[in-house]
Amino acid sequence: MAKNTSSYACTECGWQASKWVGRCGECQQWGTVLERGAPKASLARTTQAVAPAAGREALPITELRGDALIHRQTGIGEFDRVLGGGVVPGAAILLSGEPGVGKSTLLLDAAARAAQVGARVLYVSGEESTGQIRMRAERTGALHPTLFLASETDLATVLGHIEEVDPEFIIVDSVQTLASAQVEGGAGGPSQVREVAAALIRVAKGRDTPVILVGHVTKDGSVAGPRLLEHLVDVVCHFEGDRHTALRFLRTLKNRYGPTDEVGCFEMTGSGIREVADPSGLFLSRAPEAVSGTCATVAMEGRRALPVEVQALVVPTSAPNPRRVTSGVESARVAMILAVLERRLDVRLSDRDVYVSTVGGVKLTEPASDLAIALAVLSAHVDRPLPQNLAAYGEISLAGEVRPVSGGAQRANEAKRLGYSKILDSGIARLDLARDRAGLGDGVATGQRRRDPEPI
């Protein structure tokens, strides 16, 4: 008799093992390997060749006709921008994001706008009841007779709703809440997620109907479930934002029908979510007079230029270890800039606390903000404001050079459009020249000039 052995599988990535282990060998997660029961008999391998059906023969690529993709607009300009112009018929779109960021609100608004133009939309929710969705729809003004709601967690019932309603647009919230009775495991498991996603994608391709799937995320921000889920879909979008601020960003991580460097801006309000077509003024302070320690820069979010104001505060301290507090910028990057200022410009900051922050809660991760951070710190150090028409961007090297960054022309055009007539960029070449051009050349150094070592 065959030996009856148990099978173990990881609940995060689906990795299988013949015996229990404490750590998954694929995703390296602890405590996720669980017993699945006795394995089923393996299927025999297919070795016999089968002729392709008529009309499905392999053809030379030169004889195939490349049809242009037709993008259907959803009515939300920022959403269409991220998708590359709209939703492609038959596309499978995966939208992920942290809990409470506004994924369901965004998709309900997109469903309502599609229903406004006469499209039949099916919104399936496995997390909320139809009454709860109706209450949110009343608050956001998303009540339309061609918008159908269903609260189901069974895959077969969802497929039945699709056959009955015959929608032109399908939204499933979320893929981790659906389960199939034909597959082992609970909802959200790797096998269930694979089966649910594969079935809905088959419906999308067979009916030429776009399907949007909402995906949960883990604590590290990645999509929960097997990695295969991201490979199956055509578009992967991530909806992010700080719950303490109203601003939201929609980014594309994968797009078979358009670019992957577009970013959509939204604002969460009491009546729903609102797109922000021009977010230029969201990250700039509105002080009537110039204040020391502030400098404007231009950051690139995808292919969009966003002006951001950097603020710095420098105060004396008697503590042996001065504080370096940052918000919206990388602490390691700020520490490097402070070291360059102290070594190359003789700015003594070792006995002062330095605080650096951005306006509006935006996060600056690109090195193009180095020059603005350095000028803001210098301005706060001497308590002298920078000109209000000045904007700066550029990467600072350890040698004190201002290096060029990508998108310089687009950054300059955006800065000039907002009234920044004085722009400091990589054309300055050196940090000391940028300091002089900003009007901070005198009175910056507070310690005795160090003598550089003679060259060997």
Alpha-carbon Rg, integer: 28 Å
- Number of alpha- plus pi-helical segments: 10
**Nearest-integer average pLDDT:** 86
Low-confidence stretches: 38-44, 444-456
CATH domain fold name of the largest domain: Rossmann fold
Name of the CATH class of the largest domain = Alpha Beta
Main pleated-sheet profile? 9 strands, mixed
Share of β-strand residues = 15-25%
Tell me roughly what share of residues is in helical segments.
Answer: 10-25%
**Which outline best applies?**
elongated
> What distance separates the N and C termini?
81 Å
Tell me what the CATH architecture of the largest domain is: 3-Layer(aba) Sandwich
Protein name: DNA repair protein RadA
Family: Belongs to the RecA family. RadA subfamily.
Keywords: ATP-binding, DNA damage, DNA repair, DNA-binding, Hydrolase, Metal-binding, Nucleotide-binding, Stress response, Zinc, Zinc-finger
Pfam family, one: AAA_25
Would you summarize the structure shown here?
This protein has helices spanning about 75-85, 105-115, 130-140, 155-165, 190-205, 230, 330-345, 370-380, 410-415, 430-435, and strands spanning about 5-10, 15, 35, 90-95, 120-125, 145-150, 170-175, 210-215, 235-240, 245-255, 265-270, 270-275, 295-300, 305-315, 325, 350-360, 390, 395, 400-405, 420-425. With about 450 residues, the chain is of the alpha/beta class.
